[in-house]
Design goal:
This protein is mainly α. Helices cover about 60% and strands about 10% of the residues. It has helices spanning about 10-25, 30-40, 45-55, 55-70, 90-105, 110-115, 125, and strands at about 75-80, 80-85. It is globular, with a radius of gyration of 19 Å. It starts with 8 loop residues before the first helix and ends with a helix. About 10% of the residues are buried. One of its GO terms (molecular function) is DNA binding. This is ArsR family transcriptional regulator. It comes from Glutamicibacter creatinolyticus.
């Protein structure tokens, strides 16, 4: 007898957490961030990225595979080559913009925990971030 399992809210939450972890794993490597920066200028072949970044083709391909798994880039076939591009440039820009205060906090430039005394106490600091 087969047991049919339904997806519960808890299971959906676990899936969301795994996908979020995969996304941040993709963003955790400086070379992958450089690839994303290059792809902001338009579609690129792996060969072009290897030339721009000075990396081996296998290294660039591995980074692109990770970025595809994280749904950050997409590929389209053209003949025997694939052209890579950003999957959601606006979404990526928004994510990186909101990460700015956290990045600066790590360097000691912004201490939002010290400033947070009420529900709106750090709103001015958040809105002043470029």
């Amino acid at each position: 007898m087969a047991i049919i399992e339904s997806v519960t809210d808890e299971d959906a939450g676990a899936v969301t957490r795994r996908r979020t972890a995969a996304l941040f794993h993709c963003l955790a490597d400086p070379m992958r961030l450089m690839i994303l920066e290059h792809l902001k200028t338009g579609e690129h072949k792996v060969k072009e990225l290897t030339e721009h970044l000075g990396l081996a083709q296998s290294t660039v391909s591995a980074h692109l595979a990770c970025l595809r798994e994280g749904n950050l880039v997409k590929a389209r076939s053209v003949g025997r080559s694939s052209l890579y591009s950003l999957n959601d440039e606006a979404g990526l820009q928004t994510l990186l913009k909101h990460a700015g205060p956290l990045v600066r906090a790590e360097r000691g430039e912004h201490h939002w925990l010290d400033e947070h005394e009420g529900p709106n106490s750090n709103q001015e600091a958040l809105h002043s971030v470029p």
